[in-house]
């Protein structure tokens, strides 16, 4: 009896061991937003060879994949594409010549695009896909001469995150795949091409450019921009690429970038990427910034002349650790990129500019989170989400950013700043150039902090932070003394104890002004709004954050003076974070929804495809 029972136990234990291993291997490899058969085969390197044709608004050429086969019996290599025309596929023979490969482009999935399935076996380790982009490409914006700042040359830029790299390069478009890449880009003469790779400052402007990214990066970090770009150095390691009109302004605005790098390297370990340059894009750039390695892409709407919005640079720089060095394994784990990055961003702002500014910024973003969460389904307020069957662009919110940051701040408050800094440094050191999912992070957290210092936090609290909706009651919200003073001044006016002109505002920074506008009651009369505008000139503010906060307050009450500058703003700026809420406010106002549609009809062609598709959903 006994031996038999033991035999069974051994068998079941063995069995569960085997299944456990299978489950964990496939759970890491499965990305519901990619068609790629990454369990069979992985791309290790891409050689990109493309010609930029501004007349046709088309990239054409080939991409060569170096393959590492994991499954010796595999018979196919599947990559992601969207709106691409595939012309031919070739595989390298043993003797170095190229043979045709049969392939099929599958049916289009509205979210994922089309799988390109190639008949290949592990005998082939180099494959070339010849292709060109089309008008349906979502990851590129082609700007006409008229849409640029200088109005002399056209402009092209890519935006690959989250799943748009596949719309300009056929590849395994999953953040769990890391590749090195080289590129040869041909452009019209006089234009400069830059990429998320080495950009040599003294390259001849001859329309023929070579790049190399020797570190392994996820595919959403492949980036290209082409335009009438010029370079100016900020420090030995940092500089700015921009159209001429922005160059000096940007160099002034972002002069503290080197300081930020130095602080970050001291806290979290070496900066691994060599140079760190900034590329200033045309104002239609759909984001604030994009952390393309070695070359962050930056909206010109943060160039205000007073360095008030440079936390964006701290943010994109922080991604050099959280995101680019350690990468979310799937888009369900986006908080592993953005929550960590918001946390690091604030940590850098604290070191470089002091506690007061860092506290104000953290407090402002907490209030933005609360506003954002009002429109979200409860399930979308968990840190770890399941986006199967959903477009990552549609599921975008501030939750992974700010709730992620709050989670890490809460841990920091529990374990102490010194220990938490050490923890973060060892996290970045131990997992560099790897992908990270929520569960692997939680395991590391348990080993390094939770179990090491028992009784400090309860594992159930961590479960709640990560998997449950809402903000836990003991979240640590940054309070700002400066904001308390702002509220006091506001009360003096609202209670008619002081006229506006006598309020003590002379030393206020942009952050205090933003708090002031956010705290204004929503039912002010037109007279009160006029008075505010007369004294503080919000409608004429050239700071986009202030202007948009003011516009969102004044649109619903039909405050007449806002509409002329608002029209101008909507025609010029395409940053989604600004224009989507503005169009939504307009649409919600029955007297202005027609006006909004008319402006959108005119402005739409100048917006990025991502911005267009977001606004198309509710306007038009
Ligand atoms: N990587 C993001 C932008 C992004 C996220 C693009 C997800 C596509 C999918 C970038 O670092 C970012 O977070 N930008 C923010 C910056 C802000 C929160 C400081 C932006 O664009 O506003
Ligand atoms: Zn980010």
Question: How would you portray this structure in words?
Answer:
It is globular, with a radius of gyration of 26 Å. Residues 1-29 have low confidence and may be disordered. It has a seven-stranded mixed beta sheet with strand order 5-4-8-2-1-11-13, with no helix packed on it. Strands 15-16-17-19-18 form a five-stranded mixed beta sheet, covered by helices on one side. Strands 9-10-14-12 form a four-stranded antiparallel beta sheet, with no helix packed on it. The termini are far apart. The protein has three domains: 11-135 and 165-219, tricorn interacting facor f3 domain (Immunoglobulin-like); 324-479, Orthogonal Bundle (Neutral Protease, domain 2); 520-619, Peptidase M1, leukotriene A4 hydrolase/aminopeptidase C-terminal domain (Serine Threonine Protein Phosphatase 5, Tetratricopeptide repeat), CATH 1.25.40. It is of the alpha+beta class and 620 residues long. The protein is 38% helix and 20% strand. The structure holds ligand BES and zinc ion (ZN). Residues 161-162, 287-291, 312, 315-316, 319, 338, 401, 577 line the site of ligand BES.
At the fold tier of CATH, the topology name of the largest domain is Immunoglobulin-like
- The radius of gyration computed from the alpha-carbon positions, rounded to a whole number of angstroms, is 26 Å
Bound molecules: ligand BES, zinc ion
CATH homology superfamily name of the largest domain: tricorn interacting facor f3 domain
What is the terminal separation in angstroms?
Answer: 76 Å
């Amino acid at each position: 009896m006994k031996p038999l029972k033991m035999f069974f136990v051994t068998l079941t234990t063995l069995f569960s061991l085997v299944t456990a291993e299978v489950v964990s291997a496939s759970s890491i490899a499965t990305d519901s937003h990619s068609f790629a058969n990454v369990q069979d085969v992985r791309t290790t390197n891409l050689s990109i060879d493309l010609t930029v044709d501004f007349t046709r608004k088309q990239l054409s050429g080939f991409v060569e994949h170096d393959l590492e086969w994991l499954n010796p019996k595999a018979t196919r290599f599947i990559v992601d594409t969207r709106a691409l025309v595939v012309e031919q596929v070739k595989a390298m023979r043993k003797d170095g010549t190229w043979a045709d490969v049969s392939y099929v482009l599958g049916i289009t999935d509205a979210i994922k695009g089309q799988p390109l399935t190639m008949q290949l076996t592990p005998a082939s380790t180099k494959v070339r896909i010849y292709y060109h982009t089309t008008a349906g490409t979502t990851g590129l914006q082609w700007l006409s001469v008229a849409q640029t700042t200088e109005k002399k040359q056209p402009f092209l830029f890519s935006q690959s995150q989250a799943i748009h790299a596949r719309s300009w390069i056929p590849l395994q478009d999953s953040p769990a795949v890391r590749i090195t890449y080289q590129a040869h880009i041909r452009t019209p003469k006089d234009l400069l091409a830059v990429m998320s790779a080495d950009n040599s400052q003294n390259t001849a402007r001859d329309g023929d450019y070579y790049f190399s990214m020797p570190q392994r990066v996820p595919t959403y970090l492949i980036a290209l921009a082409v335009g009438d770009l010029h370079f100016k150095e900020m420090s030995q390691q940092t500089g700015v690429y921009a159209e001429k009109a922005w160059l000096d302004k940007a160099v002034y605005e972002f002069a503290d970038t080197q300081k930020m790098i130095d602080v970050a390297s001291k806290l979290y370990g070496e900066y691994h990427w060599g140079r760190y340059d900034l590329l200033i894009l045309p104002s239609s750039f759909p984001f604030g910034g994009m952390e393309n390695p070695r070359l962050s892409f930056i909206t010109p709407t943060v160039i205000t002349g007073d360095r008030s919005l440079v936390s964006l640079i701290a943010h994109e720089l922080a991604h050099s650790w959280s995101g680019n060095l350690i990468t979310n394994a799937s888009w369900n784990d986006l908080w592993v990129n953005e929550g960590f990055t918001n946390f690091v961003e604030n940590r850098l702002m604290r070191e470089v500019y002091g506690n007061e500014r860092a506290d104000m910024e953290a407090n402002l973003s907490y209030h933005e989170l609360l506003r954002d969460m009002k429109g979200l389904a409860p399930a979308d307020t968990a840190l770890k989400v399941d986006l199967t069957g959903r477009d990552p662009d549609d599921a975008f919110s501030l939750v992974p950013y700010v709730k992620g940051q709050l989670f890490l701040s809460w841990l920091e408050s529990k374990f102490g700043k010194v220990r938490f800094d050490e923890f973060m440094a060892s996290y970045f050191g131990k997992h560099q150039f790897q992908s990270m999912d929520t569960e692997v992070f939680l395991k590391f957290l348990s080993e390094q902090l939770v179990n090491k210092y028992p009784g400090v936090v309860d594992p159930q609290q961590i479960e709640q932070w990560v998997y449950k909706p809402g903000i836990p009651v003991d979240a640590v919200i940054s309070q700002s003394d400066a904001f308390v003073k702002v509220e006091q001044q506001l009360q003096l006016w609202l209670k008619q104890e002081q006229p506006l002109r006598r309020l003590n505002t002379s030393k206020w920074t942009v952050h205090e002004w933003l708090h002031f506008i956010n705290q204004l009651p929503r039912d002010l009369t037109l007279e009160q709004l006029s008075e505010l505008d007369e004294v503080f000139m919000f409608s004429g503010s050239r700071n986009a954050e202030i202007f948009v906060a003011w516009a969102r307050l004044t649109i619903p009450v039909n405050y007449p003076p806002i509409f002329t500058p608002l029209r101008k703003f909507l025609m010029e700026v395409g940053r989604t974070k600004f224009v989507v809420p503005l169009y939504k406010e307009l649409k919600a106002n029955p007297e202005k929804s027609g006006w909004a549609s008319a402006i959108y009809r005119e402005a739409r062609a100048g917006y990025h495809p991502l911005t267009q598709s977001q606004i198309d959903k509710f306007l038009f």
